[in-house]
User: What shape does this take?
Amino acid sequence: MKDRINESLSALCDGECDELELRRVLNYVSNDPEMRDRWNRYNLIGAVMREESARVSDISRGVMQALDGMPVDDVAAPEQQSSALATHPVRRNAPDWLVSGAVAASVTLAVLFGARIMNDVTSAPSMMMAATPVQQVGEGASVSEQRIEIDGRSGQLPATVGVTTDELRVAQETLEQYVRDQSGQNAAAASVPAQVAPYARVANFGRDTGVKE
Amino acid sequence: MNNSQNAAVKQRTDAGNQMTDQPASDQQLVVRVQKGDRRAFDLLVVKYQHRILALVGRFIADHAEAQDVTQEAFIKAYRALPSFRGDSQFYTWMYRIAVNTAKNHLISRGRKTPTQDIDLDDAAFFADEANMKDVDTPDGLLQRDQLREVVFAAIEELPEELRRAVTLRELEGLSYEEIAEAMNCPIGTVRSRIFRAREAIEKKMRPLLSATA
Assistant: This one.
């Protein structure tokens, strides 16, 4: 068997082996360093017989190590390559770890962003409260009065509040609309699996209420 | 090398060129590389590394530096191989890349490039010494001389039919079919004879190469 493959190797030196033999030889060569050395010696014999100038030195291993990881379709004209590429070939495609890192970062960002929106939705009233500085509210007003005012029950706000009345009214209408929508969605959510409801809520809040970030 | 030797080598070189007009093995291997089989490129590197190193050595005297430039030339060739259409022989194409790489290397180091290139017609076998000296270390020269002695001694010891077959192949560049006609035997026999001749020579040269590796 070994002789047979070596004979194929010899035939390959002369361009006299068929495609099937070539494949077999390539398979053997990649698994058997001895065959690779034999190929080297076969070619050296011809070089010596023809009195070719030949320096006996094996640089092929260095070449293949340098090529390791470089895709064959990574084509560039020879003159475009810098000498640095030879000793430290650079892959044009992004490394695998970078790609997977970018994907992981994107997913993390999406999750964080979604969670933040969820938090914003659930804490919307308290955020609205926080938007009104306590010290700017009239001294006589109690905490409960402030809530009522902000809730829009009284329709009156102290003039010292930093938010204009119109802005606050729009915000209140938006919030009321959102609460109404949620009531409807909650009723609808009762008939669907529980996991769907939070997503519907988040998606609905940004889109349907006209809130812009 | 004196004139008569030059003429003899030139005569053999011309005969050898007939073979390299149809480098079927190179063509097969190039196609395989273009299909993404890097093992095939490894065989091409192993096959031509000695000649390319000798060529680069005519531009760059330092052996280690010449090795680096040779390696760089092969890497450039690999990267450009997908666009190699096969209009010229692989070696001729590789030769141009190696010369350009060597010249660029000299320019980048602020050194003068040779004013006269090696004639492309002579490049394949370097029968013409041109104006550039083949600089090699004493060890390298000794090794080459020893290798030549071993190879030719081994050829002398071959049985007549093996010696004739391998000579017709390596020096005259005949195909297996032509050798079969010349020797009046089946092609399979030619193939076997050439293989056995190479095996016998390779066996003799192996200790020398492993000692210097």
User: Anything to note?
Assistant: Chain A touches chain B through 59 residues (CB under 8 Å).
